[in-house]
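Input record, target 12 of the design panel.
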């Protein structure tokens, strides 16, 4: 695997047999971070810390986990790992690790297996770059197209993409566990979503019936900007991030989605031009979401994009 420069390292852990896991992002240098919640059913930890104007600007790690609210315990393992490394917000009693995170609902496919704090520790230990993609980490139990239930759904997963900009790059990471369908925004093609009676995806807008599927869904995003941006600039860009995701996931941010995005920027390099950043966000979110669908692996009863011939 080609080694790439990166201000963030990514580690996955998933259960050996169950469809559930977690993903940890470690940041080696001071940064600025914000979070933006778009869906109406989020599950998160320490997101309020990241509001512009609050004391703490920098995060030491961010985690994504399966297991719904039970998965929030993964953050404890990440904190333990960072405490051993003596990383965190400086205080007179020693550094306090700042570890926000968010979870997806995958309890219907995880076989009753719930995340444990040590999963976060193990994922942090494995952090490297570039990351593995597909049905790994927090994407292990991800599914999409659930408007007619899991019996008509398809597999989601974890995806990553890097877009170069002047003087730096934007890394986009996505865990796609959406109620809606996944589209390739560059070709307009339906990749994964609600399947018709014949087993092939027809999408939310191509089917009819009793929409009584899973009421709990979430797409999680993390964008890392290798150049300096203020928290106010990051908050302004969060709307662009959700707009880019809306081209990929349809419908998005419903009452039954907990869609949430983290935006993290370095502090060393001069920022690229605004419209160049906007273009990188659209391209990066699009490619990462497509990768999450295309590189997922199917499981009995829930096929992946790669299992179905269009």
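The sequence produced for target 12 reads:
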């Amino acid at each position: 695997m080609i080694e790439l420069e990166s201000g963030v390292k990514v580690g996955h852990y998933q259960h050996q047999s169950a469809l559930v896991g977690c993903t940890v992002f470690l940041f080696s240098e001071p940064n600025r971070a914000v979070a933006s919640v778009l869906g109406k059913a989020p599950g998160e930890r320490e997101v309020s810390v990241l509001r512009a104007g609050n004391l703490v600007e920098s995060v030491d790690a961010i985690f994504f986990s399966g297991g719904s609210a039970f998965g929030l315990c993964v953050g404890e393992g990440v904190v333990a790992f960072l405490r051993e490394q003596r990383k965190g917000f400086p205080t007179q009693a020693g550094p306090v690790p700042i570890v926000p995170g968010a979870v997806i609902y995958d309890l219907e496919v995880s076989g009753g297996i719930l995340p444990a704090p040590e999963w976060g520790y193990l994922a942090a230990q494995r952090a490297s770059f570039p990351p593995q993609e597909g049905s790994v980490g927090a994407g292990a139990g991800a599914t999409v197209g659930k408007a007619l239930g899991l019996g008509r759904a398809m597999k989601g997963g974890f995806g990553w993409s890097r877009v170069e900009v002047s003087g730096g790059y934007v890394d986009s990471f996505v865990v796609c566990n959406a109620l809606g369908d996944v589209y390739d925004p560059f070709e307009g093609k339906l990749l994964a979503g609600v399947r018709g009676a014949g087993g092939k995806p027809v999408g939310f807008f191509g089917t009819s019936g009793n929409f009584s599927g899973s009421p709990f869904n979430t797409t999680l995003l993390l964008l890392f900007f290798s150049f300096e941006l203020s928290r106010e600039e990051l908050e302004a860009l969060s709307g662009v991030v959700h707009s880019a995701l809306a081209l990929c996931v349809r419908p998005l941010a419903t009452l039954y989605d907990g869609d949430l995005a983290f935006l993290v920027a370095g502090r060393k390099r001069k920022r690229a031009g605004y419209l160049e950043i906007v273009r990188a966000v659209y391209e990066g979110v699009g490619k990462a979401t497509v990768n999450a669908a295309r590189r997922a692996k199917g499981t009995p009863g829930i096929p992946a994009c790669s299992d179905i011939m269009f």
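Residues 136 and 199 are 24 Å apart (CA to CA).
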